[in-house]
Please model this.
Amino acid sequence: MSSTSTARVAPIVPRGPAPDAHRRRATRRRAARPWLLLAPTLVVLAVLLLWPLARVVNLSFQDYGLRELVSGESNYVGWANYAEILGDSYLWTVVLPNTVGFAVCCVVLTVVLGTLVALFLNILGTFWKTVCSTAIMVAWAVPAVTGTYVWIWLFDPLNGLVASALAAIGVIEPGTVNWYTDRLGFYAIATLNVVHHGFPFVAVTVLAGLLTVPKELYEAATMDGAGAWRRFWRITAPMLKPVFAVVTILSTIWDFKVFAQIYLMPGGNGGNAEVFNLGVWSYIQSFAQGKYGLGSAIAVLLTGLLLVITVVYMRTLFKEEDL
Amino acid sequence: MRRPGGALTWSAAGRVLGVAAILAFALFPAYWMFSSAVDADAAHRGATLVPTNLTWDHFVRVLDTGGFGQFMRNSAIVALGTVFVSAGVALLAAVAVARFTFRFRTSVLVLILIVQMVPLEALVIPLFLQARNLQMLNSLLGLVIVYLAFSLPFAVWMLRGFVAAVPNEIEEAAYMDGASWGRMFWSVLLPLVAPGVVATSVFSFITAWNEFIFALTFLQDADKYTVAVGLQRFFGQNTADWGAVMAASSLITVPVVIFFVVVQRRLASGLTAGAVKG
Model:
């Protein structure tokens, strides 16, 4: 493109102000190019992410129900939705503990398990390292939806593997125990599901980080008589601090917005209000109860919570590297 | 790390145990899924670890009377549509942020990072209302458009690493030979980042293939269901046809697992390139 315009302009006006103008034009074109390349992405993000976000905030200040859905009119009620949510003891005793407690448990277990697996893989030979990492890749790749159904099936109170095995050794009477109706039991199964799905990411990332730690450091520490425990806390942990920061914060963000894994479990789609987290509560209020305004307010609350975590994430990331 | 006598056998035994534990924990759910799918009496297998009567009946039932073939076609259409558009759009944006220095470049990168944190639960309400107004509910095209939005930021972020990994000198050599920017992009840059585009596309494909919350909200007629929603068909009021559920789950899972394991190397290198390198 630029070569043709050079050919056209140059012979006609060999000197004077025109080459300057031409150079300016070329500079401007070069300056515009990144924006032209970015334009489609920015348009998509603006229309499909930023605009809906603005809309959900707007909806959260409305009593938007089925009537408004049909008529398309707005119905502003100020902070009423937020007052209703924040004044509801259900939020403080059920939904928030479910969301935060579940996320904290999942993150701690995911990061600890992932790190242990990475440390273990690091001492294996190439063959077994490949075999094990392929196996954990399979665990990572199993879709959340089908993975959830497998866990539900494993813990099925009537014929599932766990109930049958426990009944066989006489711990429980078959068909008398239903873990899903109990809040703790429900979330224990959900935690198992999410940790199983999440630890491969941590393991793979930490393993990649471990490869960057110079071997000499460990050799020197071993010579000084440091055991494996001391070597981990004195060398590995400080060296991999940025890696741990990133996997912890990313896991936190992901575990706060777990939806399908809760919604698909028995009772999670509306049957048992004891087990909702923020995302499921918002969805049920909107699409099952038809209270889109209230649901939006809950969604805004969840988004705000994630935004705070994201800011922490960005801070950590920016300290480590210059974008 | 050879130590005399007992220490060696203990550490070897520890490794064997460790490998066994990792393999068992990582693979057991997938094994249980597949083995239930081929077990003739899946619903009553209880704690029997090996399926008793092997059969493909569950698969036949799921595809035949369950209409799961249609759901898989729908999912494939949606996923491929998402992949083609998002790969192209994301590559352009990745070139912009990896190859050019311009004002607000950092702001654009921060924006791309931040929008990945937005929970889908917050987007599903306004996008549902919007799609309803535009008569896009119950349409696969509507889903493609929505999936584009949340596969793009990740794709840009990952491709940026792949583009940055191509040495600047190669690009400059193309200019020296008289190539225009467009020519350089098509003949030099694109072939070099093609593996990265493939890896990123696989990830977009998986995201779209598995997506649940939007498919659940948008699709109303059974003939439009994608696999994640179609699975619910095999659940009764209080019972589940576990053989069918596990057979259908296997049909969803197998292509994803194969794709994922095949591109794992590329994916890991792209992730670290995006995360570690500037």
In short: Residues 272-278 of chain B have pLDDT under 50 and may be disordered. Chain B has eleven helices and no strands. The longest helix of chain B spans residues 242-276. Residues 21 and 27 of chain B are 10 Å apart (CA to CA).
